[in-house]
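Extended Data, panel c. Modelled sequence:
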Amino acid sequence: MRTFSLLKGMSVYDRNGEILGEVCDICIGEEGLVTDLLLQMKGFIGKKVRVPVQSVSSFGEDGIILGSNRQYSKYRELDNEYTMHHGHPLAKKNTMTPHGEQLGLLDDVYFLEKEGTIVGYELTDGFFSDITEGKRVIRTLDPPSMGKDAIIVSAINQRGGNAHDEMSELSKQGPW
């Protein structure tokens, strides 16, 4: 299980060990799956490309290795796709339950690397609240409804507010 914040800035290598670039964002489909990694390519131009999650051979602690070379394409913003910070950004978007309860602002997502399935959302109530209470993590099994102004998630379990509250404990609570 990974978070976007852990992947951001991580180097991506082809199978020959050549660095392609660094992860600068993730692409999330309407069904709530991480479909692609968005890379800032090395070089002066610094173009952005998308790499399908399925083409990743391994997610390491210090780098990402692709299964085969040239499995990337130029990044284009798609209407039915979201990212954390680029086209249709989700970061800092209001997150609510289907019953109208405000959960907080989206700060990060937890997902299963190979499948791209988002299993948790890290939420913030603001800087001071994060310092005093900590960020909250909710988990969900259902895909979110992503709208222009809010993300609607079915929260199965809401945890958080404590400094010792870590996502590693979340993986013990779910079927994944």
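The first strand starts at residue 2 and ends at 3. This feature is highlighted in the accompanying rendering.
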